[in-house]
Amino acid sequence: MWSWEYALQILPQILEALKITVSATFVAFAVALVVGLLLTLARRSHYKLLSLFAQGFVEFVRNTPLLVQLYFIFYVLPEHGLALTPFLAGVIGLGLHYSTYLAEVYRGGIESVPPGQWEAAKALNFSTFETWKKVILPQSIPPVIPVMGNYLITMFKETPVLSAITLVEIMQTAKMLGSHSFRYLEAFTIVGALFLVLSYSSSLVVKSLEARLNLR
């Protein structure tokens, strides 16, 4: 049976763990945004070796499980002299994994820019950097913001997998509370409600940004 007394008792511990979940999600999303753009630019590079490396990295990461990648980063790299904290390993693993998906999102946005825009930039004698900064990216990124928002929401719901590398986020906290008291209903219900609030709030922010940019 549901106990409000027990639910209120464990709520502070879950809310404390929520900070880790939110921090891990947003830091990992920032990593994914930056690395995803770099991968897209690398794949479009005229340097064949760089382009092939970026393409191979994207295909490898997208076709291997996130959990395996996290295990490798957290448990294997220390044997080669690179020891990371659970939080850092988690955000790097989650960020790199989703950077490969965002790379495809960026690519779709860039390919939607009309060829005439590239020709106009060349006619104005823009450098490659100026072309990307002033012409291509400002036109290619806004249309794909809704898709990026969807990946942010997905990343919120993926954070429980970080418990596999000992990061104590809200799902792991709920499991620990349940194992100590043998009461799982309250803990998992609160965690589910918090995930719903986080996901719904994120979707509202994305919709607001979408409307502000007149994407509809």
UniProtKB/TrEMBL annotation:
Transmembrane segments: 20-39, 184-206
A GO cellular component entry from the record: ATP-binding cassette (ABC) transporter complex
UniProt topology in membrane: Multi-pass membrane protein
InterPro entries according to UniProt: AA_ABC_transptr_permease_3TM (IPR010065), ArtM/GltK/GlnP/TcyL/YhdX-like (IPR043429), Ectoine_EhuD (IPR014341), MetI-like (IPR000515), MetI-like_sf (IPR035906)
Keyword Protease carried by entry: no
Domain of life: Bacteria
Annotated ABC transmembrane type-1 domain residues: 18-206
This protein's record includes keyword Cell membrane: yes
Localization (cell): Cell membrane
GO terms, molecular function: transmembrane transporter activity
UniProt GO BP: amino acid transport
UniProt keywords, alphabetically: Amino-acid transport, Cell membrane, Membrane, Transmembrane, Transmembrane helix, Transport
Membership in a protein family: Belongs to the binding-protein-dependent transport system permease family.
NCBIfam families named in the record: ectoine_ehuD, HEQRo_perm_3TM
The protein, known as: Ectoine/hydroxyectoine ABC transporter, permease protein EhuD
The organism of origin for this protein: Desulfosporosinus orientis (strain ATCC 19365 / DSM 765 / NCIMB 8382 / VKM B-1628 / Singapore I) (Desulfotomaculum orientis)
